[in-house]
């Protein structure tokens, strides 16, 4: 690769996302590519509407390098150029100045909430977007089906779909990338990847962290819109889809949308298919956590959920009658990120001790890998560590998930980006449940932070 020059403008660079995830992701990919044909030629402009304090930009890059596990000066070294600007890209004249500072191909990363993204898109239309502009839009893409539609209309006036990258960093997680080779790269698992052999699928992201000062965003959003609408449904798309005709962007994204289109609620009753909870004071991961209702910036009367569980069906021949359970919560005592495919019990065989039927676990946590529970002699519990383990080679995907989605955007690979129709469809799937939540149709349960979530006896009114 003698790479072309690109200027990455990050709007919202002073936010927590840039420091924790996006810039570390960038550092991880520049580091990976540093010795490949002279490395990538990326210029970075970080913008914020608020004035940058003296030294704030340099120390942001240092913290981002450290968050990527690199020496603190590394990101600065790897970038061809970097600078911070105080600018409001929603103001056309300020946006024009930013675009004038671009050298090479412009990549505009909108690390901002949907309302701010919409204002910048308006400004882009007014100044006339450069023809080679790439737009990267952070999740949540809209905050309802209607706003996702209108964002899509706006964005497609500014750039064609093949230059638009709607980010879902779960799609950049090594283990999520493993789902495709796991299913289609060999015969062992795809042969049983159906309702005949699989009884239930669980897609879980239970986190020990709590609100972490994000009340501004989270209290208006809640677990369901934060996690299920994007991350968990995208994973469901990969697990539930049919074999794509080919694994290019259209092939993959057509297969994902077909799976999402087939999603419905058991008995067409979204309220009965869902549960929600909110943490009370407790201790999680050795830290004292206040009750969600008492966290700074929270309006307790909103009844925002910090834990949500949803059961859906995928109405295809392959998945007939198989519940897909999607759960995510904060302040959970035994955090776990995984996709489990629980196998049906075999026909009993006289003389053979009864064992648990086993499961396929795709571990989405840092350690990754796939664990297949099988019955072995002397190991009646196939969930025990003697079961077969396929560990991914960490050298194969050394990028952080944000590095993976970012490199896809920089290189124009659309496979890790959520297509317009899928972003809308995911809102359409969760909106009936959100309505049930807001109208009080699903009781808000309480769980102490540090516990494992639902306890049906603790029901409070929403
Ligand atoms: O642990 P990661 O990779 O940051 O992903 C989980 C996070 O994903 C984000 O998209 C959500 O807004 C957060 O609430 C969540 O904690």
TrEMBL record:
Look up the signal peptide feature and give its range.
none
Annotated GO biological process: glucose metabolic process; pentose-phosphate shunt, oxidative branch
Q: Fetch the SUPFAM superfamilies from UniProt.
A: Glyceraldehyde-3-phosphate dehydrogenase-like, C-terminal domain, NAD(P)-binding Rossmann-fold domains
A single MF term (Gene Ontology):
NADP binding
Residue intervals of the Glucose-6-phosphate dehydrogenase C-terminal domain: 181-455
Keywords, comma-separated and alphabetical: Carbohydrate metabolism, Glucose metabolism, NADP, Oxidoreductase
Residue ranges for the region (Disordered) are 270-299
What region holds the Glucose-6-phosphate dehydrogenase NAD-binding domain?
9-172
Annotated membrane-spanning segments are none
Q: Name one GO cellular component term.
A: cytosol
Tell me the route in metabolism or biology where this protein functions: Carbohydrate degradation; pentose phosphate pathway; D-ribulose 5-phosphate from D-glucose 6-phosphate (oxidative stage): step 1/3
Name of the protein described by the UniProt record: Glucose-6-phosphate 1-dehydrogenase
């Amino acid at each position: 690769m003698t790479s072309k020059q690109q200027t990455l403008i990050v709007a919202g660079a002073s936010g927590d996302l840039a420091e924790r995830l996006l810039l570390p992701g960038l550092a991880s990919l520049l580091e990976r590519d540093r010795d490949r044909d002279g490395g990538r030629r990326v210029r970075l402009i970080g913008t914020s509407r608020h004035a940058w304090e003296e030294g704030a930009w340099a120390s942001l890059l240092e913290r981002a390098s450290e968050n990527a596990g690199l020496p603190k000066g590394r990101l600065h070294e790897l970038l061809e150029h970097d600078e911070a600007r105080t600018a409001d890209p929603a103001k056309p004249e300020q946006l024009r100045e930013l675009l004038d500072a671009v050298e090479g191909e412009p990549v505009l990363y909108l690390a901002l909430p949907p309302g701010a993204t919409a204002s910048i898109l308006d400004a882009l239309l007014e100044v006339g977007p450069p023809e080679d502009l790439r737009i990267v839009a952070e999740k949540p893409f809209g905050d309802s089906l209607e706003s996702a539609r209108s964002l899509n209309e706006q964005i497609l006036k500014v750039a064609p779909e093949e230059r638009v990258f709607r980010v879902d960093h779960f799609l950049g997680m090594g283990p999520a990338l493993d789902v495709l080779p796991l299913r289609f790269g060999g015969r062992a698992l795809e042969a049983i990847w159906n309702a005949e052999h699989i009884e239930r699928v669980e897609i879980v992201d239970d986190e020990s962290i709590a609100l972490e000062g994000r009340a501004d965003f989270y209290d208006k959003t809640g677990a369901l819109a934060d996690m299920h609408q994007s991350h968990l449904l995208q994973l469901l798309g990969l697990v539930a889809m049919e074999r794509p005709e080919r694994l290019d962007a259209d092939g993959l994204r057509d297969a994902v949308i077909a799976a999402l289109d087939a999603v419905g609620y058991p008995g067409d009753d979204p309220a009965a298919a869902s549960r929600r909870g909110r943490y009370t004071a407790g201790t999680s991961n050795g830290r004292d956590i206040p009750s969600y209702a008492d966290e700074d910036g929270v309006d307790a009367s909103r009844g925002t959920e910090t834990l949500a569980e949803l059961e859906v069906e995928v109405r295809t021949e392959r998945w007939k009658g198989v519940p897909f359970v999607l759960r995510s919560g904060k302040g959970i005592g035994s955090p776990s990120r995984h996709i489990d495919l629980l196998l049906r019990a075999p026909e009993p065989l006289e003389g053979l001790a009864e064992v648990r039927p086993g499961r396929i676990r795709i571990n989405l946590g840092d350690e990754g890998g796939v664990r297949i529970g099988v019955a072995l002699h002397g190991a009646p519990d196939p969930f025990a560590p003697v079961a077969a383990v396929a560990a991914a080679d960490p050298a194969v995907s050394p990028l952080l998930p944000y590095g993976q989605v970012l490199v896809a955007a920089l290189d124009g690979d659309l496979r890790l980006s959520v297509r317009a129709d899928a972003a809308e469809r995911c809102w359409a799937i969760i909106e009936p449940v959100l309505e049930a939540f807001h109208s009080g149709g699903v009781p808000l349960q309480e769980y102490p932070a540090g516990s494992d979530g639902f306890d049906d006896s603790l029901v409070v009114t929403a």
